[in-house]
Design goal:
single chain, mainly alpha, 4 helices, membrane, signal, transmembrane helix, transmembrane, MARVEL domain-containing protein
Length: 169
């Protein structure tokens, strides 16, 4: 069974490669002057660099390099959770024909379309939550190991007070 550190390294490098691939894809569309593509190129590139920092932090056992990625992942999961909740509210409204949207799939009603996309978003949210928890557990392990190494290396150098009361010499 692979170790948690290896799993976190593989997950982070796969996410990093996907982010850089998305940045390259968006860059190919941004050359036409599309402002949204330029923004997404920068976002994907920065997120890829921060994900690479997580990978380097796992290799070097440095918990300080892991924190930026976990922070961005937490923000991403919060935004995705809000999108899922809003989408399900919209799906419930679509079931009562309060929202009319021309869906791209012919033969599906609004309610069916919103329910199908809501189910996919919920599965995506659960999948990313599991990945985020795995990466967080990897961070906790690296942080604990780093603390143990620090405690062992600094243990013999603890200073003690060796003061004695004054003597009448």
């Amino acid at each position: 069974m692979p170790s948690l550190r290896l799993i976190c390294c593989v997950l982070s490098i796969v996410i990093c490669l996907c982010e850089f691939a998305l940045a390259i894809y968006e860059y190919s569309h941004s050359r036409g002057g599309n402002l949204a593509a330029i923004i997404f190129t920068c976002v994907f590139f920065i997120h890829g660099c921060i994900t690479f920092m997580y990978f380097v932090g796992m290799i070097r056992h440095n918990p300080c390099l892991l924190v930026p990625f976990l922070t961005i992942q937490l923000i991403f999961m919060t935004v995705l959770g809000v999108i899922v909740v809003i989408w399900w509210i919209t799906a419930i409204l679509a079931c009562f024909d309060l929202i009319h949207y021309k869906n791209p799939i012919d033969g599906m009603s609004n309610c069916e379309f919103f329910m199908a996309v809501g189910s996919l978003l919920l599965i995506l949210f659960i999948f990313w939550a599991k990945i985020s928890l795995t990466l967080y557990h990897g961070y906790k392990r690296i942080e604990r190991e780093s603390f143990y190494r620090w405690r062992i290396s600094n243990g013999p150098h603890k200073t003690r007070s060796r003061t004695f009361p004054p003597t009448p010499v």
